[in-house]
Design brief:
alpha/beta, 2-enoyl-CoA Hydratase, Chain A, domain 1, eight-stranded mixed β-sheet, five-stranded mixed β-barrel, 16 helices, 18 strands
């Protein structure tokens, strides 16, 4: 027994010594091994993507990575979203960042590229075309607001200067009024504006200024291919793919991490996509309109509320909607419910609810109502208008086409009231019908026919549908509308 204890004691001492000796070595090896983060910027740039970038930046700083490679393939997106992405990349410093443009880096993608310290491009890729445009439902409109263009131009210039890229190229990405030429002065190449060239000619003489080529003419937006970007010094090198870039940087043997968006981040990006947002609004508007036209509460209203709830939930998670918009939306729904269930007709409650609903939706599409560029306000306005337009088109089509379908014939009474059938016009104001008990002679879905003491009337069921041959009671008479409900003991 003592021999076993001695052996265990020796083994314990040996293990402790090995641990004390190997731990610093392992720590040193881990510290010397570089960690590379690959940050994908792909598809439409929205606030869902900016949230993903923020998370990756926090992870990169926590893991003490040695380099972040930003892979870019995008046609652009929201100005507020790209502003947050650029801010996150700035917070990465002193961790170096390199942009790899695998396809397109247009509009907001160009600004993200300029926010990196070095730019690499693949063959056939391009960068530029950053003029602000309002995009909605597949329609693009040029924004000519000088204030917006000037602010965006200044942002591009400042970002380029901060990362030692040519600021003139950055400005030409945004502003059509910038004209640039590639010139040679005393065997050195420069990128100059037309005004700067004239000043140099006056200073040095005509013969010392040689214009190699025009980079961009006035009135045209600058967009550079990979070869042009390298020639002008914007792109450091052209590489075929990520593997080639890692080989060029001598990083092919380093530890590579590529964070992926979580399912919740993907869901939020899906819900806040401009087309999906418009679709959710259209379904919400249709559901509420159909529910107002049909007494009671049914499938249309439920789908409408669910669609609008998904719209607000997605925009709340990305920071667009806050409790103000949600409270306005809730109050709007309550007012609409009161109009449907409590107050007959469509009056002040319904109109107020509709107005509050529109206001809450509009505010949920913009992040800072008092400090939002006109382009973002225009885009939010377009989403609401296009959704209303789509709702109107669907309603008009349903009025003209749906009554001809077999489904309509099954759910809506098709009989016609004729004098031959014993129907006559009666002034309901002369009939004391309130409280009378009758019997349905057709199903009430919610409209139908009922017999009261041998007289046939058109009636509307209050609440749920009523089957044929059921006893009903008149609740109220509003003009020619007779509102009935199922007799309690029927």
């Amino acid at each position: 027994m003592s021999q076993i204890i001695k052996r265990l004691h020796r083994f314990f001492i040996f293990s402790t010594i090995c641990y004390l000796l190997l731990t610093p070595l392992i720590t040193f090896l881990e510290a010397t091994q570089e960690k590379i983060f690959i940050l994908p910027i792909k598809g439409v740039i929205d606030l869902g993507l900016s949230g993903f970038v923020k998370r990756v930046v926090k992870e990169a700083k926590k893991e003490n990575v040695s380099l972040v490679i930003v892979e870019i393939d995008t046609f652009g997106g929201r100005l507020d979203a790209v502003g947050e992405i650029v801010k996150s990349l700035e917070e990465l410093k002193p961790i170096p960042t390199k942009a790899f443009i695998s396809a397109e880096a247009w509009s907001a993608g160009a600004l993200i590229s300029l926010a990196c310290e070095e730019i690499y491009m693949s063959p056939g890729s391009s960068i530029g075309s950053a003029e602000p445009r309002a995009i909605g439902m597949g329609v693009e409109e040029e924004v000519k607001d000088e204030k917006t263009i000037s602010a965006l131009r200044a942002k591009f210039k400042a970002t380029a200067e901060a990362n030692k890229h040519n600021p003139k190229l950055a400005e030409a990405f945004v502003d059509k009024d910038v004209e640039l030429k590639f010139v040679s002065i005393e065997n050195k190449n420069y990128i100059l504006t037309s005004e700067e060239i004239e000043e140099k000619r006056k200073e040095l003489g005509e013969e010392k200024i040689k214009v190699i080529k025009t980079i961009t003419e006035k009135g045209k937006l600058l967009n550079l291919t990979a070869e042009e970007a390298k020639e002008l010094g914007l792109a450091k090198e052209i590489v075929s793919n990520r593997k080639s870039l890692l080989t060029l940087l001598n990083l092919e043997k380093e530890e590579i991490f590529e964070p992926k968006p979580t399912w919740s981040e993907n869901l939020v990006r899906f819900l806040t996509h401009p087309i999906v947002s418009s679709l959710l609004l259209t379904l919400g508007f249709l559901g509420i309109i159909f529910e107002i036209k049909i007494p009671g509460w049914g499938l249309a209203g439920t789908l409408g509320v669910i669609s609008l709830a998904l719209f607000f939930w997605g925009h709340y998670l990305v920071g667009l909607a806050n409790w103000t918009e949600i409270l306005l939306f809730t109050l709007a729904v309550i007012l609409i419910f009161l109009e449907i269930f409590v107050i007959p007709g469509f009056g002040i409650a319904g109109i107020s609810g509709g107005i509050l609903l529109l206001v809450s939706i509009f505010l949920a599409l913009i992040k800072h109502p008092l400090h939002t560029p006109k382009i973002e306000l225009l885009q939010a306005f377009q989403v609401v208008v296009y959704s209303f337009f789509a709702t109107l088109v669907i309603i008009l089509l349903s009025i003209n086409l749906f009554p001809k379908t077999g489904l309509w014939r099954k759910i809506i009474l098709q009989e016609r009231e004729t004098q031959e059938g014993g129907y006559t016009t009666i002034d309901l104001t002369q009939e004391n019908l309130i409280g009378k008990i009758g019997k349905t002679i057709t199903p009430l879905r919610p409209t139908g026919k009922a017999d009261f003491s041998g007289k046939i009337f058109d009636v509307i069921a209050e609440g749920e549908f009523v089957e044929k041959d059921k006893e009903i009671e008149v609740v109220s008479v509003e003009g020619n509308r007779i509102i009935v409900k199922l007799k309690e003991d029927a």
